[in-house]
Amino acid sequence: MNRRLGLAILVVLSLTLTAGCLDYVTDGGEISDDVLDAEPAAAYDWETDRNASLTLDTGSELQAVYNVSADQRLRLYQPTSIGQEGPLDISAVRFRYANGTVISGTELRARGEIDQTPDEVYVTLPADGRLAFTAGATPRRLTLPVYVEGSYEVILPEGSRMDFFLFSNTVPAGATTERVDNRVHVTWENVESSSILVQYYQNNDLTIFGAIIGILSAIAVGGLYYYRRQIDRLHETRVEMGLDDEDEQ
């Protein structure tokens, strides 16, 4: 039995190591043409005056537009749940030249570079312009490495708020918030840190939070009342038995 268990463990370890080696041999798997050329859910904001514009039309999807330079090589990665790094799951890639011409992700790969490894996606730009792509996001908490330094803007989904300090936060410090057409815009004039964080909440979150506090408060009051009634009953019993003076409370 022990020998079979040992063999099973060796097989699992071998498969794991082999899979890891194959990932590096194949550069982690090439991003397919369909993914690179997919249509974005909404038009990219090419006219932004920020070095990075990050738009959250929904809490689970991010649209990013970065101001980039010729031959600049971006390393697109994201922290994983086990404390390591993995490639950013980009799709709907577009590149806009300074003259306004927009090319698809496959055209960008042919003219520059889009190379995925097990740890990151490398993108090399063919000219000055703007790089745009879509990626996944965590609802109510956007955490993203800083791929380019400079000014940043994060546009939150409609109905999002950052007024209640317990549910909202920005990193690095110094961000300003402004509500425009029912959408909160978070901006930094210059970001030099390794990552940014924007924590926000939806309007109904406060209602849910208030209901939870109300329920917990009612339970607490009910518990105190029950505890007090038990003490009173015990005292009455002791008085009836002549163990306590009726005037003592």
Mean pLDDT: 84
**Domain unit count:** 2
- Cα gyration radius (Å): 28 Å
Described by strand count, sense and barrel closure, the largest sheet is: 8 strands, mixed
CATH top level label of the largest domain: Mainly Beta
What is the share of helical residues? Answer: 25-40%
Supply database-style keywords:
249 residues; alpha+beta; Immunoglobulin-like; 2 domains; eight-stranded mixed beta sheet; 29% helix; elongated; DUF5803; Lipoprotein; transmembrane
Question: Can you walk me through this structure?
Answer:
With 249 residues, this protein is an alpha+beta fold. It has two domains: 173 residues, Immunoglobulin-like, CATH 2.60.40; 42 residues. It contains four helices and 17 strands. The strands form four sheets. It has an eight-stranded mixed beta sheet with strand order 6-5-9-2-1-11-15-14. It has a four-stranded antiparallel beta sheet with strand order 4-3-8-7. About 7% of the residues have low confidence.
Write a brief structural summary.
With 249 residues, the protein is α+β, with helices and mostly antiparallel strands. It has helices at 2-25, 33-36, 105-111, 203-240; strands at 52-58, 61-68, 73-79, 85-87, 91-97, 102-104, 113-116, 121-124, 129-136, 141-145, 150-155, 160-161, 169-171, 176-180, 183-191, 195-199, 201-202. The strands form four sheets. The chain has an eight-stranded mixed β-sheet with strand order 6-5-9-2-1-11-15-14. The chain has a four-stranded antiparallel β-sheet with strand order 4-3-8-7. The protein has a three-stranded antiparallel β-sheet with strand order 10-16-13, with no helix packed on it.
